[in-house]
Write a structure and sequence with these properties.
The complex is a heterodimer of chains A (488) and B (454). Chain A has 488 residues and is of the alpha+beta class. Chain A is built from ten helices and 23 strands. In chain A, a hairpin with a 5-residue loop joins strand 16 (387-399) and strand 17 (405-417). In chain A, helix 1 (2-14) runs parallel beside helix 2 and helix 3 (127-144) packs parallel to helix 5 (218-234). Chain A starts with a helix and ends in a 5-residue tail after the last strand. Chain B has 454 residues and is α+β, with helices and mostly antiparallel strands. Chain B contains ten helices and 20 strands. Chain B has helices spanning 15-29, 85-101, 125-128, 132-149, 208-221, 239-251, 256-260, 320-325, 355-360, 413-418; strands spanning 34-50, 53-71, 74-80, 152-168, 173-188, 193-200, 232-237, 280-284, 304-309, 312-313, 342-346, 352-353, 364-378, 383-396, 399-403, 407-412, 420-424, 428-430, 435-438, 441-451. In chain B, helix 4 runs parallel beside helix 5 (208-221). Classes of the chains: A alpha+beta (488), B alpha+beta (454). Chains A and B meet through strand 2, strand 3, helix 2, helix 3 and strand 16 of A and strand 1, strand 2, strand 3, helix 2 and helix 4 of B. Strand 2 of chain A pairs parallel with strand 3 of chain B, so a sheet runs across the interface.
């Protein structure tokens, strides 16, 4: 494979490119979804292709081809050469507009490999066993409570990626990812409520095998999911006003994701996403001085956590995975960067430039961006709260184009009074602005309740890229937050 | 030497004959009771600009073969982008294996049979022939307009060719090719920003200078923003904001599947007045004012479906699975899962008014150019939240009197549309792969719940 990929590098050099890389990616996906006690869809997908990225006269060009897209013929040396020519042609069109040439931050060539090997390879398991696992969950949900709809899904993904650059890097990476979720919906005359587990929008993912699904224990959680969906129908509306909130781990993971993870992407800060999702309030002068959160807030970007959904060996610039402080004792310290953006501000890349597949260019993406654990237990935080809402599992998320003003909704909440759980509330929402919110954080649960939550589909860029990321979090409390937004 | 117009776009297409040949090959190989084959091929190119330079510029040629095999009521589906003979044979065989392993789905009745496919003009050679230089020329025109005003430009310009062939063992055969072109533009000053975009199947209809001029005009006015107390206001929504709202409404319940599962906001409301009688909503895959395409992913013809007529909820969107489950003879051409593809919100000609008349009716209200990061808060109550962006203005006595800082809204779409006071006559197409054609709207009540710093 390497010899055919090197053809692209040779061609790019011949055409005068100052830099080029090629990524060949092949992957397999297996998706099983069940709905109301039967299989809704059962499918697999295989995918392979390559993308050539060139820097010509300081401007980027990128062209990508599936193995057999051109009239059904398989990838050949001629295809690779033509694709490289197209990338150079595109770069020449780009350079008409550039004011100063792009310079990449320095990187020594690397010959390396990395793999995330599962303990129990889901692709080696019988498919009927995986179907039966979900159907068992559905039976348990239906048995536990009179819900109207039950569903479940499992997704397994494996990928092999080769990266070669004109600087001499040659890297192979392989990984397996597993995840899924279950859920139930209950309805009466004028209300519909749902619960799901373990996380929103497809579930919780990790670079692990079937052992991740076993750890999540869908079977054990299924009855509770159905019971809570039914109980929510009778629960009162979440109260409105300023009060304390306690966020459970998966909701807190999304809070970190939206208000910290995206805000620290250096390409956003430099305006490169301004035409689409926006920029960031964390402008360059804030680095090293800005009080992002209270002194208990420590946020770390760590691409090296074994099994973390945002882990890898090397990013798609070929930069090794790293761990570094983003927020230390409340002060903002570091952005996520790429060779291009780090070069722009005179720094060295910290290895966060990733593409979702062969047909996309790398962009700055979160790795595992984690809120470090504190010293409390969730029980202690609840006992220490006079009036507030404990909120669990995201249902709605929205944030402005500078990652400043946000609003979240969760599936369920429990009202807390005088340190005791008073009762369930439905449709909880909260809103605020990022620095004020993180400065109101005064208690974080300890490492015993901390885990890395895996989000499979963080969206960014044009054309869109939904990529895997992770967020370590334990339940945490935020003081005096505006709760219960809107008219219900 | 690379020539400016040296382009090989057409090489990337399979064409009608080869596409349908592959479909036939797959159907011949399949030993399943029923088989459905879908072959898609596409070339998509996108030129992205920010800080008034082209900073990302990409091109993709790809294809996908999807095979669904049914054994009785058991289904397996497999897809691949490897289209050599061996991979195709493996895909067909694996689909059958999965079907045999799968438990029965008692709700499955059958794949659909063949129906005549109407004509729709959705392929334009001008778009298919567009080169990176053509896109760069348009982008440079936008940047030049921004430069003239001393502003920065950001956005994206895409062009693409898509083809799809669908066949099944009951005789369905359909082939279609379409093109798409879009240009989005955010113009930024130190004080504020303005937005505009254009979409068409024909790149000749994309007037870069006009798009830039519209965004620059907004940006010029969007300065010295004042803060306004969140609360309930009358609003003038530009078509960009209306399009986003109506596409959310569609996703919350026009699908027959969500209705059958009791998740749709329309449950118990079909045949009743759900919004102002001024409002009509339909999905029409053939209407050339949108981005038409004549059939869906099951090879079933698209037709006009009236969803809301003079405020009354009328119909749902069906794929074959949902249609047959209800005992209907055919789908409305909305595979998968009753998804809209070419939505229209409009008023009857006698009910619609000019942009000026719409504005003049606002005594005190807020003009919203577009929404940002809209998400559902409660599907059945059609509550959404999001921000305003790239031009939010205070209107008094029908005139824009000041720019406003961006606002967060949390509002029920149905409640908002119940308070419709006026519907614009001019309509704008937004998007091509999922397109909405929308006018400006004047609403009596819209609930703003928070504020940004800018």
């Amino acid at each position: 494979m390497d010899s055919i990929l090197k053809i692209a590098l040779d061609k790019a050099r011949e055409l005068g490119a100052e830099y080029a890389d090629i990524r060949y990616v092949s992957s397999q996906t297996e998706r099983i979804s069940t709905r109301n006690g039967h299989v809704d869809s059962l499918g697999t997908n295989s995918d392979s292709g390559y993308g050539v990225r060139v820097l010509f006269d300081g401007a980027w060009g990128f062209a990508s081809r599936s193995d057999s897209a051109i009239a059904g013929k398989m990838m050949s040396a001629k295809d690779v050469q033509e694709t490289t020519e197209e990338a150079v042609r595109i770069a020449k069109a780009s350079r008409q507009s550039i004011k100063k040439p792009i310079t990449l931050s320095p990187l020594d060539p690397i010959e390396g490999s990395w793999s995330a090997v599962p303990k129990k390879d889901p692709f080696e398991m019988k498919i009927e066993d995986k179907i039966e696992y979900l159907l068992d969950c559905e039976r348990l949900m239906k048995k536990a409570a009179p819900v109207d709809l039950t569903y479940g899904s499992l997704v397994f993904f494996k990928e092999a990626k080769d990266f070669l650059s004109t600087e001499g890097s040659c890297i192979r990476q392989e990984m397996v990812q597993s995840g899924g979720s279950i859920g139930a919906i209950a309805r009466d005359v004028d209300e519909v409520q749902g619960r799901s587990y373990p996380a929103q929008f497809g579930g919780d993912f990790a670079l692990k095998g079937w052992e991740h699904i076993e750890d999540l224990d869908f079977i054990g959680e299924a009855p509770r999911v159905a019971q809570e969906a039914c109980e929510l129908l009778k629960a009162p509306q979440c109260p409105s006003g300023a009060m304390d909130i306690i966020l459970e781990g998966s909701q807190l993971a999304l809070q970190i994701h939206e208000s910290c993870g995206h805000a620290i992407e250096l390409d956003r800060v430099l305006g490169m996403e301004a035409g689409y999702v926006g920029t960031s309030f964390l402008t360059l002068e804030k680095k090293g001085t800005f009080r992002y959160g209270s002194p208990v807030v420590n946020i770390v970007a760590d691409a090296t956590i074994p099994g973390g959904n945002g882990s890898f060996g090397y990013d798609d610039d070929g930069v090794p995975a790293q761990k570094f402080d983003v927020v230390k004792e409340g002060i903002f310290h570091n952005y996520l960067s790429s060779r291009e953006t780090a070069g722009e501000i005179g720094e060295v890349s910290n290895g966060a430039n990733r593409a979702v597949n062969w047909n996309r260019i790398p962009l700055i993406r979160m790795t595992n961006v984690n809120l470090e654990p504190g010293d409390y237990t969730l029980d202690e935080i609840i006992r220490d709260t006079d009036h507030g809402i404990y909120m669990d599992l995201n249902r709605s998320y929205s944030i402005d184009d500078r990652r400043y003003n946000f609003q979240f909704g969760t599936e369920i909440g429990w009202e807390i009074e005088n340190g005791c759980v008073k009762g369930m509330v439905k449709n909880p929402t909260y809103t605020g602005n990022t620095p004020e919110f993180w400065n109101s954080c005064d208690a974080i649960a300890s490492k015993d309740e901390w885990k890395v939550w895996g989000i499979p589909n963080c969206g960014k860029g044009e054309p869109g890229q939904a990529i895997r990321v992770g967020h370590g979090a334990a339940p945490a409390r935020f003081r005096n937050v505006r709760v219960g937004v809107g008219r219900w | 030497m690379v020539k400016k117009n040296d382009c090989r776009r057409d090489d990337s297409c399979f064409g009608r004959e080869r596409s349908l040949e592959i479909v036939e090959e797959v159907l011949k190989l399949s030993r399943a009771d029923q088989t459905e084959v879908r072959l898609t091929g596409f070339q998509s190119s996108l030129t992205r600009y920010a800080n008034s330079v082209i900073h990302q510029n990409v091109d993709e040629i790809n294809a996908r073969l999807s095979v669904k095999a049914y054994v009785g009521k058991k289904m397996g589906s497999v897809s691949t982008n490897r289209l050599d003979k061996e991979s195709i044979a493996k895909t067909v065989e694996r689909a059958l294996e999965l079907a045999e392993l799968s438990p029965e789905n008692p709700e499955f009745v059958s794949l659909p049979g063949p129906r005549p496919i109407p004509e729709a003009q959705c392929y334009f050679e001008s778009t298919a022939a567009a080169t990176p230089y053509d896109r760069a020329d348009n982008v440079m025109e936008v940047i030049a307009e921004a430069n003239k005003a001393g502003f920065q430009a950001a956005g994206a310009h895409s062009t693409g060719v898509n083809e799809i062939a669908v066949g099944n063992s009951l005789g369905v055969r359909a082939y279609g090719k379409s093109t798409s072109a879009e240009l989005t533009c955010v113009i930024m000053s130190d004080e504020g920003s303005g937005y505009a975009q254009a979409s068409s199947r024909d790149i000749a209809n994309i007037d870069a200078a006009q798009v830039a001029e519209e965004a620059v005009r907004r940006c010029l006015v969007n300065k010295n923003q004042i803060a306004i107390e969140p609360g309930e206001y009358a609003v003038f929504l530009e078509p960009y904001a209306v399009a986003e709202m109506v596409s959310f409404l569609s996703s919350m319940g026009f699908s027959a599947v969500s209705y059958q599962e009791g998740r749709s906001f329309l449950c118990g409301k079909l045949g009743t007045e759900i919004v102002s009688p001024l409002i009509n909503i339909c999905d029409d895959g053939l209407d050339p004012r949108g981005a038409p395409f004549p059939f869906d992913g099951e090879g079933q013809p698209k037709s006009r479906v009236a969803l809301v007529e003079q405020g009354v909820a009328k119909n749902l969107l069906y794929d074959s699975f949902a249609a047959f489950k209800e005992g209907k003879k055919e789908s409305t051409g909305h595979y998968p899962r009753g998804m809209a593809s070419n939505l229209f919100l409009y008023a009857l000609p006698e009910d619609s008014v000019s942009q000026e008349e719409l504005m003049s009716g606002v005594k005190r209200g807020i003009l919203v150019t577009r929404f940002h990061y809209v998400r559902s808060v409660h599907t059945q109550k059609t509550i959404i939240t999001g921000m305003t962006r790239d031009g939010t203005f205070l209107i008094e006595d029908g005139q824009v009197v000041s720019a406003l800082k961006n606002l967060r809204f949390t509002e029920s779409i149905l409640n908002a549309l119940r308070s419709t006071e006026g519907v614009g006559r001019e309509q704008k197409l937004i998007g091509t792969s999922y397109s909405v054609v929308a006018p400006a709207l004047r609403l009596g009540k819209f609930n703003f719940t928070g504020q940004a710093e800018h």
